Amino acid sequence: MSIMEIPVNRWYKVLPARHSWRSYDARPVAEAELERLREICAGLSGHGARAVIVSGDTGRVFRGIVGSYGAVTGAPTYSAFIGDIEDINVNEKIGYLGEGVVLEAVALGLSTCWVGGFFRPGMVASEVGIGPTEKVFAVTPIGHRTEAPSRNDRALKALAKSHSRKPLGELCSGLPGDGWPPWVREALEAARIAPSATNRQPWRFRVTAGSITVSADSMKDTYRISRRLDCGIAMLHLELGARHAGAEGIWEYLAAPEVARFRVDTR
Known about the structure:
- 34% of the residues lie in helices and 20% in strands.
- By secondary structure, it is of the alpha+beta class.
- The strands form 2 sheets. Strands 5-6-7-9-8 form a 5-stranded mixed beta sheet. It has a 4-stranded antiparallel beta sheet with strand order 1-2-4-3.
- The longest helix is centred in the middle third of the chain and has 18 residues, at 90-107.
């Protein structure tokens, strides 16, 4: 899936600590931290999706809307997630690589927030440069969050809580839970806490003794964000859980509405 060897234990450890945050105190991100994030972007980019770190006046990139999702304010840095629209798997690739950048930022003690619909993609494109078949799919602010949550952050958390985490029994089919190998449960619990647009949790999992297949619950996209992008985020979480439990595997992309299958060697 990725070009680099992902830091499994480092990212798995911070999965519960990842929370969306929209208000930042404007302190610049240290150069050493920026360099580490650039290394992660370079390592994860390729095969139709890439990530770029941009520092400076991010206010021109983000815009707020009326309602629960307010403006991103004070962020000194952002990462842009760019994909090739001719790649049929571009959305899941964007989700996977973007969440890698997010988790590394969290591991560095920084805050983030996936923004897929309400930012200025044209402004981002002019800053990072994109090819004729490329599109800016999403961005995340990166920085030091404010000590107290803003009204926008409180609204975001309230909306997420209104869509409480679905139980695994509702998300999974195939092999019954009492027959799951230990790696399967750890992988699914990690995927279950992945972020998604308005916490809609569009992923579904079909389990066998040697694989987990990720599917989208619908072909209809909402909030200007692909459900397959959300599934790509869950794919990285799932892989981190499986590998943390000692199960090495590979991803294979599948035709819609399925997204991809993580298959382990059970010999």
